[in-house]
Amino acid sequence: MQQAVHPSELDPELTDDRLNAVARFILDVYSEAISNTQHKYDNTYTQGSRGWAWVREAILEYENYFPWLKVVHRGNDIQFKIGSTSVFRFFCDDPESPQKRFVILPTEAEASNFTLPLFEGADSYEDPDGLWRFMIRKSLNEDDEHELYCVKYKSGLKEAIAKWQFNTAVKTFVSSDAEIPSATKLPEPSLEPRRELLDEDDVNETKKPNDDSV
Predict the structure, then answer these.
(1) φ, ψ of residue 60 in degrees (nearest 5)
(2) Which of 8, 144, 160, 191 could form a disulfide with 139 if both were Cys (CB 3.0 to 4.6 A apart)?
(3) Alpha carbon separation from 44 to 91, 95, 133, 173, 185 (Å, rounded)
(4) Residue 213's pLDDT band (boundaries 50, 70, 90)?
(5) Which of 21, 22, 20, 44 is nearest to 34 (CA)?
(6) Residue 19 has pLDDT above 50, yes or no
(7) Where is the composition biased (Basic and acidic residues) (predicted)?
(8) 92: containing domain
(9) What DSSP character marks residue 117?
(10) Is there a domain that residue 182 lies in?
(11) DSSP assignment, residue 7?
């Protein structure tokens, strides 16, 4: 079996900076979602559903932050591009031996995004050379951290063509062309004796369908 290469060897737009940026927000959101499903009535299904839903919403939001991130399908089987070519989906599954069938097989919507009909009027589509996935490996206990991988599988097989693992120790810096606002001058601090504050309570309140991905 051929050894999996770094994603950028197959698509130069899949740089470490971009992969780190996407992996960071996916893992942060997923971890927060799981930590919010600790009720006694929660189970693996409710955890998986919330984790999947939160990550999906985060991808839709972060499309506005990164010019190289584009959502190409907003359905339950959400698909997005990093750069101009590679289409991704995300799953919570074992990257070494995925159990969900659509990890290695495209949905109909996905197939329409990465290829065109062989000829005009044809119903069949040309198979891709592989499928790009972000794979979340859920930790087995609270002491461990969730892991995230970027993998390209051979279509229909559990064989990785490219593979990259996110290192949680890496600090992610995102470059921006936006102008940095100038510093604001703060007023001089008052040195007068403090008046006694009234004894009162201040309360500020702010109220602020799933598929095979779970």
Answers:
(1) -60, -40
(2) 144
(3) 15, 18, 22, 33, 51
(4) low
(5) 44
(6) yes
(7) 204-214
(8) 7-165
(9) B
(10) no
(11) H
